[in-house]
Specification:
This is M14 family metallopeptidase. InterPro entries: CARBOXYPEPT_ZN_1, CARBOXYPEPT_ZN_2, Carboxypeptidase_T, Peptidase_M14. Keywords: Hydrolase, Metal-binding, Metalloprotease, Protease, Signal, Zinc. Its cofactor is Zn(2+). Belongs to the peptidase M14 family. By secondary structure, the protein is an alpha/beta fold. The chain folds into 2 domains: about 5-90, Alpha-Beta Plaits, CATH 3.30.70; about 105-420, Aminopeptidase. Helices cover about 30% and strands about 20% of the residues. The chain has 13 helices and 15 strands. The strands form 3 sheets. It has an 8-stranded mixed sheet with strand order 6-7-9-8-12-15-13-14, sandwiched between helices. A hairpin with a 2-residue loop joins strand 10 (about 285) and strand 11. Helix 4 runs parallel beside helix 5. Residues about 1-30 have low confidence and may be disordered.
């Protein structure tokens, strides 16, 4: 990939080192197999990449002719057996001390309380459930007449399904402040807050994100912190645990030691179940009130839309007009932030994702944002906190464009009469 000048070790050396770490455990916390970062060469198509993802490795970044994957020794062996060249990747930006410029869970709760106290007429906090370790899962509602459930289009923003993706929490903080501080002074923000009910879930994996921050270095932790019966490996990948085409298509792992472990059953992760129940609870009079949504992740600077479990554009549950709406709105937002817009499965197949569930189960037009950086060279999952203000502000216009179309997303392709009455 452009701009990356890694030092590489051979596959045998990497695997031996990782196996040694697996004996010691990860940061001394558990005897589960260690994972490490690898570069894979020879995967040039979505089908190639899906084959690699099916081993249980997490595909962190897709380059022109290489992949970066987070994988266990077993994953590495499986990828190598498929015929791909695999080498351990020594990032030019190695894991460092957790950056105090990033917002911890306690600090996030403080920000939420501060925003609500400063803007009680348009912002309200609710606790929608608890994480596995008992932390509150918080929702922030922003709307005029915030205490009233009005008949207005609703928009959902979900943050930090994956623990190591801390920039997504900063995106939530930025949105809360943008939509409240701008109310009454910015005409566009004021009109949107007056005409929408906006829900921000600023951290849906607080156990994982707190664990990731708690070591002497970042711990590169992705999953939640839920034990798995019969295994020393902890955690479920929340974004493989959703109850639409769960485990259907090789886009997740059935092994608890995998970083993409989908859990023993759909919604087995309490955090997923809480958020899913919240979304289902927004069905009023038989109609889902949430019309549009964004699930924020890092990294690679992409805007993705469903489906992820199939390469098909038009398929069961997705008509041509519905696909065209996602595509047009994704491209419209990408014009604002410079991200690359594409269908999720253009990268590789995933199953059990929130992206597919929000559309396939709830008919919510939705997108995944893979935020800054574009590559590992700029920090991967751990860019310096000095970029937070710039990279969250970069998404302002893109998010406002989604809010613009929340009244009828199909308006972007001229099909409002057919879909919105």
């Amino acid at each position: 990939m452009v701009g990356i000048t890694p030092v590489r070790r051979t596959l045998v050396t990497a695997a031996v080192g990782a196996l040694f770490l697996s004996v010691l455990g990860t940061s001394g916390a558990t005897a589960e197999p260690a994972h490490d970062l690898y570069e894979v060469r020879g995967a040039v198509t979505a089908q190639d990449r899906s084959e690699i993802a099916a081993t249980g490795a997490a595909l962190d970044h897709v380059g022109e002719d290489t992949l970066l994957v987070t994988a266990t020794p077993d994953d590495v062996e499986a990828i190598s057996a498929l015929g791909y060249d695999v080498e351990e990747f020594d990032s030019p930006v190695p894991l460092a001390d957790p950056d105090p410029g990033y917002t911890s869970y306690a600090e996030l709760v403080g920000v939420v309380d501060e925003v609500v106290a400063a803007h009680p007429d348009i912002a309200a906090k609710s606790v929608i459930g608890q994480s596995h370790e008992g932390r509150d899962l918080v929702a922030v509602k922003i709307s005029d007449n915030v205490g009233v459930d009005e008949d207005q289009p609703e928009v959902l923003f979900v943050h930090a399904q994956h623990a190591r993706e801390h920039l997504t929490v900063e995106m939530a903080v930025h949105l809360m402040r943008l939509l409240t501080d701008g109310y009454g002074s910015d005409p566009r923000v004021t009109d949107l807050v007056d005409g929408r009910e906006i829900w921000i879930l600023p951290n849906v994996n607080p156990d994982g994100s707190e664990y990731d921050m708690a070591g002497s270095t970042w711990r590169d932790w992705r999953k939640n912190r839920q034990p798995n019966e019969g295994s020393a490996a902890l955690g479920t990948d929340l974004n493989r645990n959703w109850a639409y085409e769960w485990g259907c298509c090789g886009g997740s792992s059935g092994s608890p030691s995998s970083i993409t472990y989908r859990g023993p059953a759909p919604e087995s992760a309490p955090e997923v179940r809480v958020v899913a129940d919240f979304v289902r609870g927004r069905v009023v009079g038989g109609e889902q009130q949430i019309t549009t949504a964004i699930d924020f992740h890092t990294y690679s600077e992409l805007i993705l839309w469903p489906f992820g479990h199939t390469y098909d554009d038009v398929t069961d549950g997705m008509s041509q007009a519905e696909y065209d709406t996602h595509e047009a709105l994704g491209e419209h937002m990408a014009e604002a932030n410079g991200y690359t817009p594409q269908q999720s499965s253009d990268l590789y197949v995933t199953d059990g994702s929130i992206n597919d569930w929000l559309w396939g189960d709830q008919r919510i037009v939705n997108f995944t944002y893979e935020m800054y950086p574009r590559s590992a060279a700029d920090g991967g999952f751990y860019p310096p906190s000095s970029v937070i203000e710039r990279e969250t502000a970069r998404n302002e216009e893109a998010v406002l464009r989604l809010l613009d179309y929340a009244d009828c997303p199909y308006r972007i392709i001229g099909e409002e009469a057919a879909y919105c009455g």
